[in-house]
Specification:
Elements: E1 4-6, E2 11-13, E3 22-25, E4 30-35, E5 40-45, E6 51-56, E7 63-65, E8 72-75, E9 81-86, E10 91-97, E11 102-108, E12 113-118, E13 123-128, E14 133-139, E15 145-150, E16 157-161, E17 166-170, E18 177-182, E19 189-195, E20 200-205, E21 209-213, E22 219-224, E23 229-234, E24 240-245, E25 248-253, E26 261-267, E27 275-278, E28 283-290, E29 293-301
């Protein structure tokens, strides 16, 4: 078994509010978090844990990074927009309006494209990241899209549907749904990751089940995790998965064709529900809001 050990005490973040998704740019040593209630993108130094700054973009939820340029994209919630942020200058450099509030989003480097979930609805907004223009809307066969993932080999988009206990497979050329995969073992689908190394899709439900699917939608295996998980984060090697929610962060080892195997667990303060893993340093990051302030915490995997 491994252990998740705090590296330093929790670091205070300016302004008391709430948080949503977290991601790591391991190459440029930055951690990004949606500081939702502060209407800002929080930027953290991945080596020191110090807050580098906040960029006001709106009450954001989703955050994604272009792995080549390091540019950051934010889903600006009820501002009905997606922003492009330069993390070097800590400035918003472009913005595109979309016809609805944005929750999670993902950047597809193969197509230079952003997919932005319409919060609580039945659409995904498609944005050309080069021009920062909306180029389409995907109509989903269900409601409340919760998290998207992309297969980098085929560019197929996978979209969790929280309200339907299912996920959709979407053709990136036609922007049409090609299959709806029902997941009866899951309730309120939230975490979704595509493991490009193992060529598998990992889907989780709020009911404490973590499932593995083949790229064609075939069910492979089921495992257990804590209830109430919101976000899971996959390392670039495709071997470790961190999941947050229900008062805990759990770490899973991944193996092709098998259910994820829990290898570490740590209790967290109330309010922790999002997480990101830095595979370069085997560090796990999370954020949360509490009556005594907002906080960021990193754990070492040992």
């Amino acid at each position: 078994m491994l252990h998740l050990v705090p590296v330093t005490p929790p670091a205070r973040v300016p302004i008391i509010s709430g948080f949503d998704y977290v991601t790591v740019d391991a190459a440029r040593r930055r951690v990004y978090a949606a500081h939702t209630g502060s209407s800002a993108l929080l930027v953290i130094d991945a080596d020191t844990g110090n807050v580098r700054g906040q960029v006001r973009v709106g009450p954001m939820h989703g955050v994604a990074v272009d792995p080549r340029s390091g540019m950051v994209y934010t889903g600006d919630g009820i501002a009905d927009a997606v922003s492009e942020v330069d993390p070097r200058t800590l400035r918003e450099v472009a913005r595109v309006a979309v016809p609805g509030p944005v929750d999670a989003l993902i950047f597809d480097p193969g197509l230079d494209r952003l997919y932005a979930d319409e919060d609580g609805a039945s659409s995904v907004f498609v944005i050309d990241a080069k021009t920062m223009r909306q180029i389409g809307t995907i109509s989903l066969p269900g409601h409340d899209p919760e998290y998207p993932a992309v297969d980098p080999k085929t560019e197929t988009l996978y979209q969790n549907l929280n309200g339907d206990d299912a996920f959709a497979m979407i053709d990136p050329q036609t922007l049409q749904v090609t299959a709806l995969i029902e997941t009866p073992q899951l309730r309120h689908n939230h975490p979704l990751q595509f493991d490009a190394v193992l060529d598998e899709l990992i889907v989780g439900g709020k009911n404490g089940v973590l499932s593995v699917y083949a790229p064609d939608g075939r069910h492979v295996a089921d495992g257990r995790m804590q209830r109430g998980v919101d976000q899971c984060s996959l390392d670039d090697a495709g071997r470790l998965l961190a999941c947050a929610g229900g008062g805990e962060i759990t770490l899973f080892a991944l193996e092709a064709g098998k259910a994820p195997r829990e290898v570490a667990r740590v209790r967290t303060p109330p309010g922790v529900h999002t997480v990101a893993i830095d595979d370069r340093t085997r560090t796990v990051w999370t954020v949360w809001a509490a009556p005594n302030g907002d906080w960021v915490q990193r754990y070492a995997v040992k």
